[in-house]
Design goal:
By secondary structure, this protein is an alpha/beta fold. It has six helices and seven strands, in the order αββαβαβαβαβαβ. The strands form two sheets. A five-stranded parallel β-sheet has the order 4-3-5-6-7, with helices on one face. The chain has a two-stranded antiparallel sheet with strand order 1-2. Helix 4 packs across helix 5. The longest helix is centred in the N-terminal third of the chain and has 18 residues. The protein is globular, with a radius of gyration of 18 Å.
């Protein structure tokens, strides 16, 4: 019995009801074409910080290059992403896909046991993690295949001086970043 697609009545005129699945070879192809088509337009915004498609192109290419050339990861490797909705998320997501790697989305609210299970089950070799949850990773990292930890803070992609202030306030004023020990971790920026 076919499912009624009731949501279609909410679509604006001109919005197609179906996607042409043959229009793109891959998600990376979709990203590349979208960047080319909308290069000067805003892609994402947080407060007064706007990332245009051109910014996404440069930043995601830089991140893809880091994964390949510094971390030494290869196509098909899995990279876990454990962060809330931050400007870094699309940069990381696009970078992983552009490098030909697999994104493993991780719920930031996972317990140590849940995180260990997902990292072990997925075979992730790297993780990009919001620093507020790094203490959870600390408890399980030795039981996983994680070789590379990339830490990010809430302000990492915001405009200066908000970038510095947001991270300092979250860490030292509000004390919302629990202490952790991940000695080989690198900062996202």
């Amino acid at each position: 019995m076919p499912t009624e697609r009731v949501w279609l009545k909410e679509y604006q005129p001109g919005v197609p009801h179906d996607i042409d699945l043959t229009a793109y070879e891959s998600l990376s192809d979709l990203i590349e074409r979208s960047i080319g088509r909308f290069r000067a337009l805003p892609a994402y915004q947080s407060g007064d910080t706007v990332l245009a498609y051109d910014d996404m192109d440069r930043l995601s290419q830089d991140f893809a290059s880091y994964l390949q050339n510094v971390a030494g990861l290869e196509k098909g490797d899995r990279v876990a992403v454990m962060m809330p909705n931050l400007l870094q998320y699309p940069v990381v997501l696009f970078g992983i896909l552009r490098a030909g790697m697999v994104v493993v989305n991780v719920n930031p609210l996972y317990t140590a046991r849940e995180l260990e299970h997902q990292l072990t089950d997925s075979g992730a070799k790297a993780i990009v993690i919001f620093e507020n949850f790094a203490h959870t990773l600390e408890h399980v990292i030795d039981k996983t295949q994680i070789e590379h930890v990339i830490l990010t803070g809430v302000g990492d992609q915001l405009n200066f001086p908000k970038s510095v202030l947001a991270n300092l306030v979250l860490r030292y004023v509000r004390k919302q970043v629990p202490s952790y020990n991940l000695p080989n971790a690198v900062r996202f920026n």
